[in-house]
Specification:
single chain; 420 residues; alpha/beta; seven-stranded mixed sheet; two-stranded antiparallel sheet; 11 strands; 12% strand; globular; binds S-adenosylmethionine
């Protein structure tokens, strides 16, 4: 390990670089009251994340083994503070540019005053709200202000802290009850916690408020530039399937968001978006007029064989395989085989997991998703090698041509050809 001094000097050099930009552009230094680093240009954002990663590493080294572990095991109390703030909508009880007493927050939120004080002070440990030292009145910080003003941010917090994290408490119980080798989606922590024999999406479909929160949270999580759909255009040569008559099948394609985007970047490609009946019945109404002659919707269960003539050029799967254990993911890939021809391709657009440990704060997403997929679906994220094994297990004629992640993209494309 380098010395603390050399690590601190590397941090200092980066901090000076960012400060210089802020100063020359009259941008305030970041504070807990105001995030200003989003205003850095894209070429400085890498420095920003490198600074966050290296200062996090230095913090961990200076806290030491025991205190770092204490930070981990007590982190649930931080989450509890935030959950109480979220659940009782305490952020909305504080004026955006003023202050509120604990009694005023209690009166408008319905959480009694002593609990407001205790749990807001827990949250303040994470810089959620601040308290004026003399008056003891509460005012906003950047996080609490976001909670008061951005409903999708609140829904993202609610989904994680009220839906997924509580269900995750049953992960080990589910392994013990159903076996660690179970491939069944219902043998998961979510089902056990919710005492249901229905899969996650079916439970949500029957509960509009939970379903709405899930949809908004997904929109929030995927709104930053690393999720931008331009990366799917950069990941594959779409002009190779843009001849009149070329067809792309978007498997489990929902309302056809991806197909619509690619259609706008091609001239002739036609798209068939397949999904379950309840989705397909709603989807055409959401299609813009200019794409109606290029995108069709069809009911198709992706576990049943594809029987399409003429065969499509591409089967595309985004966010499908990571919801399923190997047994079912292999079955989905097998169902494509009857329609595969020489020259056909399968494009799998997913997060491709690093094959080893990741400690950088900004790169831990894949392993966080691992926990979520396990909890909700008894499923998993996969490394490039695991995608290859899955494809080979489905049919030895599948050949992975490339696994590409464009610069700046969270998602990768696994491009697969058919040796027919
Ligand atoms: C996580 S969403 C991904 C949607 C879309 N591919 C996208 O990237 O926006 C999973 C989709 O799979 C669909 N789905 C689930 N089970 C299915 C099945 N057996 N056959 C076809 N579609 C299914 C769901 O209705 C949902 O639209």
């Amino acid at each position: 390990m380098p010395s603390l001094t050399s690590m601190a000097e590397a941090i200092l050099a980066r901090a000076k670089k960012l400060d210089a930009y802020l100063e020359s552009n009259n941008i305030p230094y970041p504070s807990f009251d105001e995030d200003t680093l989003d205003r850095l240009p894209s070429e400085l954002q890498d420095d920003r994340w490198a600074l966050a990663n290296s200062s996090h590493e230095l913090k961990k080294l200076t806290r030491g083994a025991v205190m770092n572990t204490m930070d981990t095991i007590f982190s649930w109390t931080d989450a509890l503070g935030l959950r109480v703030v979220y659940h009782y909508q305490l952020a909305k009880a504080v004026p955006l540019d003023g202050t509120a007493s604990y009694a005023e927050i209690a009166a408008s939120s319905g959480l009694k005053e002593s609990l407001c004080r205790r749990f807001i002070r827990i949250a303040m440990g994470s810089n959620i709200f601040d308290e004026e030292p003399m008056s003891k009145r509460v005012r906003h910080t950047a996080v609490s202000r976001l909670l008061a003003t951005d409903p999708d941010f609140g829904d993202a917090i609610g989904l994680e802290l009220e839906e997924i994290a509580p269900a995750s408490s049953k992960v080990i119980a589910a392994w013990k009850k159903y076996s660690q080798d179970s491939s069944e989606p219902m043998d998961c922590a979510f089902s056990l916690y919710n005492e249901t024999d229905k899969p996650f999406f079916a439970v949500l479909a029957s509960q509009p408020e939970r379903s709405r929160r899930f949809g908004n949270a997904m929109r929030y999580f995927t709104k930053d530039d690393s999720w931008d759909l331009r990366h799917i255009i950069a990941s594959f040569d779409w002009s190779s399937v843009d001849k009149p008559g070329d067809v792309v099948v978007d498997i489990g394609g929902g309302y056809g968001q991806i197909s619509q985007y690619i259609a706008h970047h091609t001239n002739n490609t036609r798209f068939i978006v397949q999904d379950l009946p309840h989705v397909v019945s709603q989807a055409p109404a959401q299609l813009p007029e200019d794409l109606k002659n290029r995108i069709d919707f069809a009911v198709h269960d992706f576990f049943t064989p594809q029987a399409m003539e003429p065969a499509p050029a591409i089967f595309m799967l985004r966010w499908i395989l990571h919801n399923w254990s190997d047994k079912y993911a292999i079955s989905i890939l097998k169902s494509l085989v009857p329609a595969m021809r020489k020259g056909s391709k399968v494009l799998i657009y997913e997060y491709v997991l690093e094959d080893g440990p990741v400690t950088d704060l900004s790169s831990r997403f894949g392993f966080q998703m691992e926990g979520i997929m396990t909890t909700l679906f008894n499923a998993q994220e996969r490394t490039a090698e695991e995608f290859k094994s899955l494809l080979t297990a489905a049919d030895e004629r599948y050949v992975v041509d490339a696994v590409r992640r464009p610069t700046g993209s969270t998602m990768s494309i696994v491009e697969v050809s058919w040796l027919g």
